[in-house]
Amino acid sequence: MRVLLIDDEKELVTTLSERLDLRGIANDWVTSGGDAGLEMIRKEPYDWVVVDLKMPGLSGFESIKAIKELRPETRVILLTGHSAAEDLDHALELGADRYLVKPVDIDVLLSLMQAENI
Prior knowledge:
It contains five helices and five strands; from the N terminus they run E-H-E-H-E-H-E-H-E-H. With 118 residues, the protein is of the alpha/beta class.
């Protein structure tokens, strides 16, 4: 499994990356869904992209749409600090496969990814 983490909170993405590393899961991270995140997706196929909803520049919604246009087979988990139903519905309509409310529990994140890859 290969994972890309996109969140403007550097401490969050580096912590998640370290925890994935400890579990032997290949991953990359960026702090921008815009140029940096999309460039990674253009260069590398990922099984999963974990993307924050609220980011400066390209939002999580715009990132989901772009990810699905570039690599429709890539699965997406949306991270949000808020669980507004209309935001979550919109993300699912754009192609997100799942969502998690922050703070992220690494075991829950892994369970979601592993359940979908069976």
